[in-house]
Amino acid sequence: MKAQVLEKEKRKKRNRLIGIVLVVSIIVLFVFSMNPFAIYEPGNGGTGIVDYVPSTEYGVGIPILDEISPEVDYDGNINLKWSLETAYTITKFYIFKRFASGSWILIAVLETTYSYKPKCYAEGIYGFRVMGVATINGEEHNSQYSSEQSVRVSYEAESIPYLKAIESPNNDGIIDLDWNDVAGPLGGSVSGYRIYGQFAFGGWRLVEEVSKGITDYTNNVGTNGEYQYYVRSVTYYLGIEMEGGSSNVQSVVVNINGDGDDNGDDDPDPVPDPVPPTNPTISINDGDATTDSLTITLTLSCDSATKMQFEIYGNLLNFIAYSETYEIEFLQEGLDYPNYKVGVIFGNDDGETEIIYDEITYEEPEEEEEEEEEEEPISNGEEETNYTLVYVLLAILGGVIGVVVFVKYRKPKKSERR
Questions:
Q1: Quick one: which of 3, 21, 256, 383 has the fewest CB in 10 Å?
Q2: Which superfamily does 157-274 belong to?
């Protein structure tokens, strides 16, 4: 009897285990059918393949997703940043990802932020895009998708150029750069190299791009000081342009003393010093404190500026060409209503200014009172006409009364008495 009870308990445990295995298997098959890369890319945070329909009823601004840098990522931590050109209040953003040109997957829903750092676990090419959501008249409306930005994840260090040491100090301003040829990503061939440099730690700039097979470059400078350089390879893979990792940085100190001989050779042509923008100013509606219009006019000025970047509703927009006047139209449901604040950054190829602000308060325009229409007085002719009618009616009434009295009280004729 005891043996039968033990055997029955064993069967129950075995059946329970089989049930658990079946349930787990069904869940794994379901997840894999929704996202086949979820198994190969653990922890991607995906919520399944989705297709959010953009709204066509309202012109909700399209998010502008920045290019992902670097284009080849070696740790899987991707930095996404975007901006927005719209007056509608965006309440949240949808972040989408796809792997190896597969299906798009929603990986995050964010509120009031313009950056995100997803983690990519598998090696390969990832695409990202962003959709904004605005609440208009109590309903949510989706924007169009942003343009796709791609990044390649590789956990193995690529073959990176090595920039050879530069002789320093340099007395003639002719700087010779030399590096080794390398292979491109995933075994592809390099299509060229880009040389980057900076002077006196003033910021890195592209100096030159050379074609495939060229592994040296001569940079002529004319200003004394310290120069720094590094090199990156350029490769096209699956139609996508990618820069390889940066080489080591080499420095050189230039101290031009002239040619020092009588051979007639000219000294190198001087290179103009960097001229960053200066003296920035901004004024809204010529300095007015209030306005009854949602359209404001900016008066701008900045020495040596070639471009400018506005901050509206706390969001930085893209750089546009510099101009001395610019119009902006706000909405009453904007985040800052009724106090509107606008910031601006001026820039050129040599630098950018700090952001400066001006603000203005919107006041509702006063409604004009409608004038009551006065009743026109009745003309004398009409009055006479009305009185004449009264006289006629009184005469008729008097005649009728007279007839009634006459009939009632008249003396009967002799014939009638009989």
A1: 3
A2: Immunoglobulins (2.60.40.10)
Q: Which of 185-189, 205-209, 374-378, 406-410 has the lowest mean pLDDT?
A: 374-378
Counted residue by residue, the chain has a size of: 418
User: Are 162 and 178 within 8 A, CB to CB?
Assistant: no
Q: What residues does each domain of the chain span?
A: 64-153, 157-274, 278-362
CA distance 194 to 211: 9
Cβ–Cβ under 8 Å, residues 312 and 342: yes
Q: Which CATH superfamily is domain 278-362 in?
A: Immunoglobulins (2.60.40.10)
Distance between CA 247 and CA 233 in Å, rounded? 9
Distance between CA atoms of residues 400 and 384, nearest Å: 25
Question: Domain 64-153 classified CATH 3.30.870.10?
Answer: no
C-alpha–C-alpha distance, residues 93 and 60, integer Å: 12
Mean pLDDT of the chain: 77
Confidence of residue 148 (pLDDT cuts 50, 70, 90): very high
Q: Do 64-153 and 157-274 show the same overall fold?
A: yes
**Nearest alpha carbon to residue 251 among 128, 190, 165:** 165
Give the pLDDT score at 199. 92
Residue with tokens 């306005």: 291
| Contact predicate 328/312, CB 8 Å | yes
Instruction: Give the tens place of pLDDT for each residue, 19-38.
Output: 676 776 676 555 544 444 33
* Angstrom distance (rounded) from CA 153 to CA 71: 9
What is the per-residue pLDDT across 303-345, written as a single tens digit (0 to 9) for each?
999 999 988 877 888 889 999 999 888 766 555 667 888 899 9
pLDDT at position 205 is 92
Rounded distance between C-alpha atoms, residue 253 and residue 58, angstroms: 58
